[in-house]
Design goal:
It is a single chain. By secondary structure, the protein is α+β, with helices and mostly antiparallel strands. The protein has three domains: 2-50; 57-155, no CATH class; 161-298, no CATH class. Helix content is 30%, strand content 16%. The strands form three sheets. A five-stranded antiparallel beta sheet has the order 1-2-3-4-5, with no helix packed on it. Strands 6-7-8-11 form a four-stranded antiparallel beta sheet, with no helix packed on it. Helix 8 (245-257) packs antiparallel against helix 9 and helix 8 (245-257) runs parallel beside helix 10 (279-289). The radius of gyration is 24 Å and the shape is elongated.
Length: 298
């Protein structure tokens, strides 16, 4: 009897590739289960209504895994033409630090009750997932109080934060292509895409530290093992940890290009290896040694 009560309209609007037996049968079972649970929790006739929205909202914002995202019907949001000052515009500005917008996919859940042909059918309130395929990263949007936070699915309890103070600003100097991540315990990490940075010569600014990221370098892309580095921040907010030799060498490169030579010397003293360097590590060293000598390098 419960099966006859299931609303099949959402299923009918799905693409044919999502109406196969291995998708339809689990969907029907889940729909039947939801109906049974809803009927069990219905208050008796005449009883005062309970506030059930809180529990529903909590369930909606429970952490998801990558497998939870697969198979869902989602709508791609337009970050490129997001209105200035909007949440999506802010999201695009943040994600542009680490990836080209052409490779940033912001998804909202598909709601068959809305006419998606309307320009305002989907808003930032419907944001569900932000995926960065080239970096192999996925973030889930969760509302915390009045704010929407992007939590990493790949790294539990870490979310993107834009909070800055003098110490974190100094810590991130020379790493413009980074995201500052925070945990619920206010422990920070810095996520940096593993892309080759180039410091172009600017004749009008001889000691420029501006960087250009060459994301089209195929030789570099084929050499790196991981598309990004994650640097835990010391509790004192005074330096970054390097968990691998490759990430340590990349940090040396960034400090070097930012002309933080005292910091480069400190980092070099902490790096050592008794094994052959990998292709990734060699590529980073080549970038360090390929620079022209500057007057303030010793």
């Amino acid at each position: 009897e419960t099966l006859w009560e299931v609303d099949l309209k959402p299923l009918g609007r799905r693409r044919s590739s999502l109406r196969t037996p291995n998708v339809v049968i689990p969907w029907l079972l889940d729909a039947c289960t939801e109906l049974v649970v809803a009927q069990q929790h219905e208050p008796p006739s005449g009883a005062p209504e309970n506030n059930t929205r809180t529990s529903t909202a909590c369930a909606a914002h429970a952490p998801v895994s990558a497998s939870d995202v697969e198979g869902q019907e989602l709508v791609l949001l337009d970050l490129l033409h997001a209105p200035e000052g909007s949440y999506l515009y802010s999201l695009a500005s943040v994600m542009a630090r680490v990836e080209n917008l052409s490779h940033v996919l912001a998804w909202a859940r598909f709601d068959d009750r809305r006419d998606i042909s309307l320009h305002n059918a989907i808003s930032h309130d419907d944001l569900y997932i932000v995926s960065l395929p080239r970096l192999k990263l996925t973030f889930e949007a969760r509302r915390v109080g009045e704010a929407v936070r992007l939590y990493s699915i790949d790294h539990a309890d870490l979310f993107i934060t834009n909070e800055r103070d003098a110490m974190t600003t100094q810590l991130l100097a020379g790493i413009p292509h980074s995201l500052l991540l925070s945990s619920s315990n206010n422990e920070f990490s810095v996520l940096v895409p593993a892309v080759p940075p180039i410091r172009p010569e600017v004749l009008s600014v001889p000691f420029s530290t501006e960087l250009v990221l060459d994301r089209s370098d195929k030789a570099w892309s084929s050499a790196v093992e991981n598309p990004y580095y994650l640097y835990p921040v010391h509790i004192s907010l005074s330096f970054l940890y390097s968990t691998t030799l490759a990430s340590a060498l990349y940090l040396v490169l960034l400090r070097y290009l930012n002309r933080q030579y005292a910091e480069v010397v400190r980092l070099v003293d902490t790096i050592s290896s008794d094994t052959m360097l990998t292709s990734e590590e060699l590529h980073t060293l080549q970038l360090i040694t390929a620079r022209k000598t500057s007057r303030d390098e010793h």
